[in-house]
Amino acid sequence: RRTMRSPFRPLFSRSSLTAIYQLDCELGSEILQKMANNYEYDDAAPANYEEVQRQGGQDTGYDPNFVPDSVKSFVVHMYRHIREKNVYEIHQMCETSFQTLSERLFKDTPWPSVEAIAPYVDNDHVFCLLYREMWFRHLYARLSPTLKQRIDSYDNYCSLFQVVLHGVVNMQLPNQWLWDMVDEFVYQFQSFCQYRAKMKNKTEQEIALLKQHEKAWNVYGVLNFLQALVEKSTIIQILEQEKEGLEQFTATDGYDYSGGSNVLKVLGYFSMVGLLRVHCLLGDYHTGLKWLQPIDITQQGVYTIVIGCHIATIYHYGFANLMLRRYVDAVREFNKILLYIYKTKQYHQKSAQYEQLLKKNEQMYALLAVSLSLCPQTKLVDESVNSQLREKYGEKMMRMQRSDDEAFGIYDELFSYACPKFITPSAPSFEEPLVNYNQDAYRLQLNMFLYEVKQQQLLSGVRTFLKVYSSISLAKLANYMEVDEPTLRTILLTYKHKTHSVDSEGKIISNADID
Q: Residue 509's domain is classified under what CATH number?
């Protein structure tokens, strides 16, 4: 392992912190309804400690000001390792020690408050921001955050990103933690939008708090932070220079071995993936893919080092291409990542991300089944992946080739299971009667997808005949299909249109499995 050390010094200069303190953080069918119900977040599943206490539930004995000795030791050692830039030890503490302590001491409660642990780390402002980032991540994973906690977490991310953007950063942090920051930032934004859209049962206090903090998790604020990290890090220019042999970003896994910091560069890099994800949640697939363009996903890169980032990148890349009718690109990348997971998933069994890995694996098999049903390209699929696919969805894929309501329902089912949790980013109406609109964005994307499927199903007949004949006259084909020649010409032109798409460089490409 490579351990990087430097003399003890504050994580940020006093002048930088002074400037940071002054910065503002603002910167309709039965099947459809059934799928919509399955699509919803299960936000009510984890226990909410404050709510349990308020309703007279079981007393967990949680005291936010009590710091067990093991937690004191954890924060003291974490603080020391961060100041020493000991990336290996920081990673071990985040991935092993933090998870172990969470399971043993804080399975159903939050960690001690930041105010309680601050004296053990010299009240270091930046370390406290990092601790709170982990604190809120644990809260979201184990419990159900209150509205105030959601807002407080956003404020903490604002402060943390402002430090990175406007401070003089001396830290070197593990790539896994930096990815977790971006990943969790986008997840909490997504979760907040879903939470806010469920207005029907909101209390007067919640509505008042939403009105008071209308800029919390605002879509423009979220996008601005991610874009600012990309631009300030100059990561796009760094990746361009790397192609010319002038940079070693990928070769060093993004770390700075000359005594500098990797934080801004790597956060900027991961923010491009974050922007892809946000734009997919908004249904803006072109913009999402445009943000990912600087990363060459046909090659190994920093994004492949962190398994969660690797999967998130390809999942959203593949889904965006599916929605843009670039089926070949979707099939090719789904096949590659599914083959990688098939070969390596046993090595990730102890990872905190293992369950999420398995879930995304199943979702991508569903999306691959959809892609291949709309655009048969089995020659692009590895034998191992194809075997798994046939085992999981072979029967459904056979039925999806038909043009009946059952096939249509299967497309609906697989899309609803495997699609992202789409969001409506606009603020809700606070006028009575209050209504839920958390499924509006999902229904819109589902309807767009099913409209495309319906058009593709109309072409299944002509595809069948074209597979049988290497050449056939229009009159003969029209006779077989029981349509007149002008109608057949329209069908053939539609088929040609539907089997072509525009790639990321603006070129028209064919997705057809037959000429």
A: 1.10.10
Q: Can you tell me the distance from the alpha carbon of 496 to that of 61, in angstroms, rounded to the nearest whole number?
A: 67
Reduced to 3 states, what is the DSSP secondary structure of residue 108?
Answer: coil
Q: What angle do CA 86, 71, 98 make, to 5 degrees?
A: 60
- H/E segment holding residue 500: strand 500-502
How far apart CA 292 and CA 421 sit, in angstroms, is 20
Q: Which of 109, 242, 250, 194 is nearest to 424 (CA)?
A: 194
- Write the pLDDT tens digit of every residue in 431-478: 877 888 899 999 999 999 999 998 887 776 677 777 777 788 888 888
State which residues form the domain around 474: 459-515
445: left (phi over 0), alpha (psi -120 to 50) or beta: alpha
Residue 488 lies in a domain: yes
SS3 510: strand
- Does residue 497 sit within a domain? yes
Structure tokens at 184: 């969790």
Higher per-residue confidence, 434 vs 147: 147
d(CA 425, CA 513): 38
Q: For the chain, give percent helix, strand, coil, nearest 5.
A: 65, 0, 35
